[in-house]
Design brief:
The structure holds 2 protein chains of 2 kinds. By secondary structure, chain A is an all-beta fold. Chain A is built from no helices and 11 strands. In chain A, a hairpin with a 2-residue loop joins strand 5 and strand 6. By secondary structure, chain B is an all-beta fold. The chains are: A mainly beta, B mainly beta.
């Protein structure tokens, strides 16, 4: 069966510091991968998606970036965090019929 | 631009009650509709997926219906239990593996 992992689970970072969040998927090959952000009081917002290694599509302009160095690895990064980057970050992979399966999430607090 | 609305925003019911959560979307050109459950501080758990050609899906005490032409879906929960307390999210797939989410309904089932 397929499993999706995210780490770290929680993170507290100062403004201006770098960020690296990692997502890995097991039990499937060449999945579509997604990064979402869920800010307090707001719905889920799609940030990036990837259909293959090195292929990244950005949905929302911001100071975040994503990379896919391996088939089942998806990384969300920032060079300098802003207060507005705080939120709950969710990684997902795409199954058949455009169904998506979500990881446990990373709670990021920028102070 | 696809917009998804969920009503009510919050719902509190006594245990054992049958309940209905509503989801509406503005553009009927969807590939599918998914209902998710999110527990506090956790990731999303997929509950039901309804493909655009289907009218409903059932899983245990859950039944979801889809009326694409009117842009509506309902999630019916039978014989609610305290363990059903969570936030319920609906999302529509608008192609390119993109999901557009509603803001969710916060459900509390009182024992």
């Amino acid at each position: 069966s397929q499993t999706i992992h995210q780490w770290p689970a929680t993170l507290v970072q100062p403004v201006g510091s770098p960020l690296s969040l990692e997502c890995t998927v097991e039990g499937t090959s060449n999945p579509n991968l997604y990064w979402y952000r869920q800010a307090a009081g707001r719905g889920l917002q799609l940030l990036f998606y990837s259909v293959g290694i090195g292929q990244i599509s950005s949905e929302v302009p911001q100071n975040l970036s994503a990379s896919r160095p391996q088939d089942r690895q998806f990384i969300l990064s920032s060079k300098k965090l802003l207060l507005s980057d705080s939120g709950f970050y969710l990684c997902a992979w795409g199954g058949g019929y455009y169904e998506q399966y979500f990881g446990p999430g990373t709670r990021l607090t920028v102070t | 631009k696809q917009e998804v609305t969920q009503i009510p925003a919050a719902l509190s019911v006594p245990e054992g009650e049958n309940l209905v959560l509503n989801c509406s979307f503005t553009d009927s050109a969807i590939y599918n509709l998914q209902w998710f459950r999110q527990d506090p501080g956790k990731g999303l758990t997929s509950l039901l997926l309804i493909q655009s050609s289907q009218r409903e899906q059932t899983s245990g005490r859950l039944n979801a219906s889809l009326d694409k032409s009117s842009g509506r879906s309902t999630l019916y929960i039978a014989a609610s239990q305290p363990g059903d307390s969570a936030t319920y999210l609906c999302a529509v797939s608008v192609g390119g593996n993109k999901l557009v989410f509603g803001a969710g309904t916060i459900l509390r089932v009182k024992s």
